[in-house]
Amino acid sequence: MMEETNFDLGSFATPSTSALLGTTAGSSVHPSTSHGSSGGPSDDPDREQDDGQQEGGGGANDDLLGMHHRQTTSAAASAQRFIDDDDDDDGNAGVDGGADGAMDQANGVERGNRNRSATDPSGGRLLNAGAIHSRSSISSSSSSSNSSGGRSGGIASGNGTRGTAASSYANRGRFDVQSVYEPTTHHFEKRASSPSSTYVDLIAAPVESVAPSASGSGSALGHSGGQPSAVNASAVADDGGLGGTEDGIVHGDGEAAEMLDVTAFSRWLTCLCVITFDLELGQSMEYMYPPTRLTDLEKANICYLSFPDSNSGCMGDTVFSFRIRKSQGTDAARVNALVAAAVAGGSSAGSASRVGARLHGERSVPSASPAPPASPSAFTRVSRTAGHVPFSRSASLQDTGGSTAIANGAYSAGGRAAANLPVGPISTFSADASTSSSADSDSSSGSGAVSNFLYGHVFFRQIRDGGLKRGYFQKSVVIVSPYPYPSLYGKLVSLIAPEYFAHGRPLLEAASQNISRWPAPRLGENYELPILGHVLRLRIPAVHEKPSFYQMSNAPDHDPDVIHATLDDVNLYSVFKAVLPDLQTLWELVLVCEPIVVFSPSPAVSSNAVLGLISLINPLQYACDFRSYFTIHDSDFKEYTARNRSVPSAILGVTNPYFIKALHHWPNHVVVGEPLKRQSSPVPGAQPSGSGLSAAAPVKSFALSPASKRPKSEWKQCVQVQYKPRIERSKALLKQLEFDASMSDSAKTALLRQHFAALTDAFMGPLERYFASLLPLQRHISPWKHLPALSRFVPEDFLKSVEQLGPQVTSGRKGDWIGLYKAFLECPNFKEWHQGKQREANDRLRKLYLEKVCEADLAQWVQDKDELHLVDLLVRLREEMTNPASQRFITPAMSRQFGAHIDLILSKLPNDLRASLGIHQ
Amino acid sequence: MSSLSLREVKLCLLGDAGVGKSSLVLRFVADSFNENSESTIGASFMSKTLIVEDQTFKYQIWDTAGQEKYRGLAPMYYRNAAAAIIVYEITRKQSFEALKHWVKELRQFGPSNIILAIAGNKSDLESQRQVSSDEAKEYADSIDALFVETSALTADNVSYLFEALSKRLPQESIAQPKPASTVQLVDETPNKPKNEKCGAC
């Protein structure tokens, strides 16, 4: 199969450029050297990675590597010591950190200054070592390594796999407590007492300068105020992975960060990151705004995925997106760690309340209005709840969203928002975020797969700059978001990044400030979103809203200024024009969640192709994992390349030739995009369609390496699948697309969209009809009985209905529809769709039911009922009143009616019974 | 004259820190005043619809930060702006001098057809006046700018400022339907060249 594709490694990466630029080709090999330094033998899979690189990237990296090895060995060892120290002090770290909650920003300032003036080079070295170290742990776990030597030191930064991630959660917990002492409430007095220029300095100070000023013990971190060393060490262990970013930013950032309403900000964005290429570290996080708590793993993934992987042809500006898995169970671990720490340090009521506030901030729904700081009693409430239902948002949690916790809670708030507002474009934002407690159970079962991810939207700039040691300026600005919406975020990052390169950090503050004033995202609403002197117009489609292309193609006077926040803004035609006849096969594959790997020459093409693929089944939501840009550094690398189990249902977009070997066993391969050597013409789909921004500047032409002279035939765009297409193709459409030269690419895309929407519609029609038949009749809803349930979805019954009135009849398109349905019913897309429909139907039923209960003539009904019936109804009414699923439908008027009902029933009951029921309440 | 036509006007406020730019906007948009106004980060955005002589103006107001740190960002906000209000406080001579720098910058780098207004704010603090009305008026005339002394605190002249500014906006920049392109990001202020482009479409 693969033999036919004629992949040529050289067309991905060329010896001279990767040696020159040494992008990821160089850094990818760090892990194995680092392994060596920490005592573990470098293992075969890593070697294999190296080989992959060597074939493509040539041997020039060896020198680079050797250098790295020499420089980092000793430092890595001391970092190791550091980390071990920390581990011994697990229990106390949090306590001390929490108890020291009174430490105020003045200390932060002082510390910043001190660190900035630190000149001991070993400080920086130490930090670097930590970074490399953490990377090694990630890489080793993503290969099939059993080497324990290389891993032992990775504990502090998380071992990478989810199975062993608990240790990293513990670290998170410690760090949380440590950062509790950020006094966000103090900023008024602080601003008054310190000139703003102080903050400017701090903000301008390079992150690296906040590195430990001396190697050795934890107290050398330079914290003022006598911080316990364990806490300091934990900060290092935690941040080592990415150059101490959090430490630097959390404490170094001044006024602007504190004035930002992070909760409001995180309704749209998790954070903005700047990723740079450090000569010693490879990709590293230079800056993050606002300070956001991401795990090491998340940060490492963001760093790696924000740069092109093993090809250096992306000159100029490139916009692409990626998707990463959120570290699992983080919240629970944080809660537990915090509770444990606070309990241990219970002597200080102050610290307890602060921790309590933290918990509130993390676990309550983001709220625009600041709430009063949580009190110690709030803490007790939280800790009690935490043990039992770590993820539920009970009423007691909602009423005291800790505003003091907001500055730190950015990530969590974003995360919770994501869980609360399932993110798919067509998916179900709950109608009201703040009250949809049922979303908890929903997200864990249904759309959980979606909300467990973060999205990165990258603007990568690579230009020649003789003034730099490397000869090139290479930086990425990344928007990390809880939602995919590539049209919106692609535009945003294209707006923000070039201005950031021109103006620096104040620009990020300005942009964030704008974003924090945006109204909360809701389905089916129109927005005007001001940002940096522009206004973005956006429509977030409602759940069942037909995709925007209908309007685009059918209504010429449709307002073109509206950005539709969907996934369907990929210019399908330009991305897939070389493989058009196979596009319908791909539609089938996506529909039934078959694994697909997309090979393309650049991250931009890769992300467009993957997003384009999942949009083929709009308005149906793709329920499996997709990685619009996936690299060997992703912490899920191992999972996706493992050969000893079935291939996961996912769509991966890759550019690194190593994957030709690593994903050879994947059944379905798509190769798209012109090879990068044709630099004179823009890479197809290199930018989000119609961005109309500086990002839209075509990739600049650039005299390249010998590879650019290789014959074109080595890269062949094709689709190779181990899947027999079931539905007949539309030849008419293909002809039209092929021969109608007058049509623009976007017109052709509209045609394609129309075609696939009709196809999806024809396919989903029978399912919708069958599902509708499962609903109880409205007349069966009675206020005196329990809510009627939906009938069960019986596949056999459904398939029978298809035989009678399937798409073969309604659409006239021939094919094995039954076979396609059978495959679909087995796949996650069906499950997701079905759960969504159930949710929606149950909501509707419940609303109707509650209305009926309210309107019911209770006085009449109670006349001839015995106690049993009365008590039964009473209990049911009370249940409804407190049932979170019902609460969002209960208006104040309804609530009063319920109260009246309850009073009426109570009045009909004998005194003794009434008393016991009344007290019970 | 049809009141149906809606003009979207990108407006930018510039001026030294603390002269009351945000307070002016707050007074104009929400008719309120906040004594403990925090300093602006970057630039904040507000919009307000105003009807002047049968014409509806939708002001999209970029209220820039006066702090030096954000000074470099100003071009983003006055780029494509139809109008700019440069604010000084009558109680601080230095803020008036800073205003002249802004005018210079706008003349050099701003849109060529931008309408300028000069607002001498804090007119309620007459006793502490450092910049005379005559001096400011003379300067404003010399650069063909509207001149108004305002008080965000007392609301004195604030709505007048915006009404007078609206009347100065050139007639031809009435917003027209946006060209049917895939450019989805909107520069809100219609300016002359853009409209010509519209016609071509």
Automatic annotation (TrEMBL), chain A:
PROSITE patterns: DENN
UniProt feature, compositional bias: Gly residues: 150-161
Compositional bias of kind Polar residues: 13-25
Composition-biased stretches (Acidic residues): 43-53
Residue ranges of domain UDENN in the record: 270-835
GO molecular function: guanyl-nucleotide exchange factor activity
Any GO CC annotation of this UniProt entry: recycling endosome
Region of interest called Disordered, as start-end residue ranges on this chain: 1-167, 348-380
Listed Low complexity bias regions: 26-42, 134-149, 348-358
Family: Belongs to the DENND6 family.
Protein name from the UniProt record: UDENN domain-containing protein
TrEMBL record, chain B:
Keyword field: Nucleotide-binding
CDD domains (UniProt xref): Rab5_related (cd01860)
The UniProt record lists the keyword Transcription regulation: no
Residue numbers spanned by region Disordered: 173-201
KW Nucleotide-binding (keyword) present: yes
InterPro entries, per the entry: P-loop_NTPase, Small_GTP-bd, Small_GTPase
A GO molecular-function annotation: GTP binding
Positions with biased composition (Basic and acidic residues): 189-201
SUPFAM superfamilies in the cross-refs: P-loop containing nucleoside triphosphate hydrolases
Sequence intervals crossing the membrane: none
PROSITE patterns in alphabetical order: RAB (PS51419), RAS (PS51421)
Protein's recorded name: Rab31 protein
